[in-house]
Queue: 2 jobs
Job 1
Amino acid sequence: MTGEREPIGVIGVGWVGLVTAACFAELGHPVIARDILAEKVEALSRGETTIHEPGLGELLKKNAERLTFTTDMGELLAGARLLFVCVDTPPTASGDADLSRVRAVVEELGSGDHVLVMKSTVPAGTGQSIRRDLPGVPYVSCPEFLKEGSAVEDFLHPDRVVVGADQGDEAAGDAVARLYEPLGGEIVRTDVASAEMIKLASNAFLATKISFVNEIANVCEEVGADVGEVARGMGLDQRIGPAFLRAGIGYGGSCFPKDLKALKQLAGNTGYHFQLLTAVIEVNELQKRRVVNKLQHRLGSLAGKRVALLGLAFKPDTDDMREASSLVLAARLQGEGAQVSAYDPVAAEAAKNLLDGVEFCGSAIDALDGADAVVLVTEWPEFAELDWAAAAARMARPLLIDGRNFLDPNLLRGAGFEYEGIGRAIESTVPAGTAE
């Protein structure tokens, strides 16, 4: 475990696993990546990228000679000692993390001269349980802190790397830490349980900032303040900082919703009621639905109205639809009797399997054709460059709800739109029931 270019094994080549494999290959390590889905392994072996992540495809092509993809666990175990577990841990019906994929890896691994490095997000206490099941196999917790849309950059330029190893596994922790030393981020050495909690606590705190600023935005609408100015003034305080203080229609994706539920349930399993997290989750769910109220206030009944959604993925630069606000918004609009059209430059194919009855369009302009309103759901850069005057001419009524406060209100109003953001001062309001 002392060689700079020691072979690395990656178990699971979803989003985290594929980025991990590609970036370690970029650092010069031979990587063997294993997944149980043969079609995914075959596609990657042909040089095809299976997820949308900026820069990932280039890394996979550049380092193809260092990357081996397989479905054979035996090939992985024979070729690498450091094994990074990157399998999914989705929430169960109870809110607990589903560790069945992690347990399946443990069962396949058995004993041997390997180091198990847990990248998957797992509840505190998981490492201790695995060490009991795999006596003699060193265990290291090394949670990921990657953001979809900038995962390659985050991996190669981390602000910190957390390495958790308990007594007796210090040498394994040293080996993992050495892998990350060339990247320059601070390496946090701690015990396994603390490493597991650092990941959950970090995501919970960031989600709390988002829900807090969304609550502030809702108050701003009532008192005539501008949440953008409020957030800017808050963020200049070094104790607060500007990150994650952008009001909108709520967080989504694969990490925040899952990790908050897991942490809340983890606390509940110990008998502790995590009241703050309960409120954070509730605020986020309600925020997604406020857009419907805004539309009803402007249009009256939504029955028979055509509403366009611009953007479907939970954030730009990804095709991830997990916990996307568009899912809730589309369902609520359809529940009110509205016809829904939609456009997303990347996530449309993934969304088609999730959104029944939605008309998917080939461009933003086509989605707006004949619409009574448009909601900006995902802040794709191309929407800022749209010819909004031409868009207004295509709509039955040029009403825009900016769910991400992404667009320039003056530009939109100058193009003929009724514009309303989240927590922004409203220039004019059409009372409910007075729509044409």
Job 2
Amino acid sequence: MKDRILIKLSGEALMGQAGYGIDVSTINFIAKEIEKISKLKYQICLIIGGGNIFRGVKGASQGIDRSTSDYMGMLATIMNALSMQSSLEKINLPTRVQSAISMAQIAEPYIKRKAVRHLEKNRIVIFAAGTGNPFFSTDTAASLRASEMGCSKIIKATKVDGIYDSDPNVNTSANLIKEISYSEVINKNLRVMDLTAISLAKESNIPIYITNIFKENSLIRALNEEGNYSKIN
């Protein structure tokens, strides 16, 4: 059986160099990177954040009811999921979007058995709308879906190469941490993923790889434990 993995993309990654929204050239580049993995021994799940369009916590801090704000953020993830689906299918990668919020005209409802069947048929499954519940991030949704799908790895594809011992944007001599335990990430309150997501991955014993989505072949290299990445296990 093919190895099953989950890739978590930050919504901000889809902006490229723009300050907001979706940059088509960036999403096409990411789709090509995912295509490289699909040609190997992997079944692929995807979760994309919504921070390029709307971030629930920020909305709440500006006076919107937190639950309402989080649901707005979930809608942003659906927009991103549909964009990624379009880009993947343009390069002939069969894709299904499953939403935790019922939205029958544009996405399937999240049904575990159906998602597994899609994966077995080598379709990429994009899980949208987070967990479907307010107060939970798409990081937590990534750990939850990875656990449900029986994934062997989570890749968090972001804007940096991995976890550093200090801020690399401030300290040019900051060192990349190649491997770190779940407990260390939790105890040091490292904000690479939220603590609920880390705790769930620890409970399910799924290692998390952090890598830079903007570097060509970074996903494959992280899966092969080559190049720059950080591993939480």
